[in-house]
Design brief:
By secondary structure, the protein is mainly alpha-helical. Helices cover about 70% and strands about 10% of the residues. A two-stranded antiparallel sheet has the order 1-2. Helix 2 runs parallel beside helix 6.
């Protein structure tokens, strides 16, 4: 899903840029403290390593974004040399609670593959009826009516009628075989339809479970981002006040980077799960409603 990948990459780039900016503040603070003689060189070196490490992560994130934008351009038919930016984003929105059974019924009503399979069953039923009808006796009737005589005054009506009944006695075994083949084909198509119905039910339930799980992951990841940012702020204040060295700051910056990465991944999984539900429902072009949480 190139579109969602690009959105996730853009979020990752924004997060990496913010982390680089925060790390630059910590580096400037460590350099100033070292120059003032209030902090050892180790603090400055540690801050510089953290800053350069985050710069590397930003470079990788930007490269992934550009490559995924190329893949998206190929998918939608844009020239690869043309630069573009996405205007429609897919922010996180919790998905409304759904009635599972009603959602399954909606899928059965909308899925084109199920509709095609139902038509195949109807066609097989007609073939089975036709094969059965070939074995039944047939009745044919023919007749005619006319007028004979020398003239109109001396004429009278005449007519004849014939009827025949025929039964395919000598073709019974061949016709019986055709009926059995038709019945076998009907049973096969019905079994496929039953299996497809079960697969649709499973697809809907799987997608709903994935959405519920992804929403919980997003909520936990967002809480982790808030907590890690708070821990980073506290560590920076302690270092600025000379209470501790910048090791705690370095560790807090790493925690922020990890929490941001997990948050972006959970958002991506959540949107993919909602698109899976839209596909299972046969929603077609209404996928935006599902990504938007409606």
């Amino acid at each position: 899903m190139p579109y969602l990948l690009v959105i996730a990459d853009e979020t990752q780039v924004s997060s990496a840029e913010a982390q680089v900016a925060t790390s630059k503040v910590s580096l400037d603070q460590a350099v100033a403290n070292h120059q003032a003689g209030t902090a050892p060189l180790l603090d400055e070196l540690r801050a510089r390593v953290d800053y350069q490490s985050l710069q590397q992560q930003l470079i990788v994130a930007r490269n992934s974004l550009e490559k995924d934008k190329l893949a998206l351009a190929r998918t939608i038919g844009l020239p690869l040399a043309q630069s573009f930016n996405l205007t429609d984003k897919a922010p996180y929105q919790a998905f409304d609670e759904l009635d599972v059974e009603a959602t399954i019924r909606q899928a059965h009503a909308n899925r084109k593959d199920l509709a095609a399979m139902v038509e195949q069953v109807k066609a097989a039923e007609q073939q089975r009826k036709a094969a059965t009808a070939d074995r039944l006796p047939t009745l044919k009737f023919s007749g005619d009516y006319g007028d004979i005589g020398v003239n109109l005054d001396h004429s009278h009506g005449t007519g004849d009628a014939t009827g025949t009944v025929s039964a395919p006695l000598f073709a019974e075994f061949a016709l019986r075989g055709e009926a059995q083949v038709a019945q076998s084909q009907l049973d096969t198509v019905r079994a496929k339809l039953s299996d497809q119905n079960a697969q649709v039910d499973a697809d809907i339930r799987d997608a709903l479970l994935d959405i519920q799980s992804a929403q919980k992951l997003v909520e936990v990841a967002r809480s982790s981002v808030d907590l890690s940012n708070e821990a980073l702020k506290e560590a920076q204040e302690r270092y600025a006040n000379g209470v501790s060295d910048n090791l705690a700051v370095s560790q807090a910056e790493q925690s922020v980077a990890q929490a941001d990465s997990q948050y972006v991944s959970s958002l991506y999984r959540h949107n993919v799960a909602k698109l899976s539900l839209a596909r299972a429902l046969g929603a077609g072009q209404n996928y935006k409603n599902y990504v938007g949480g409606k």
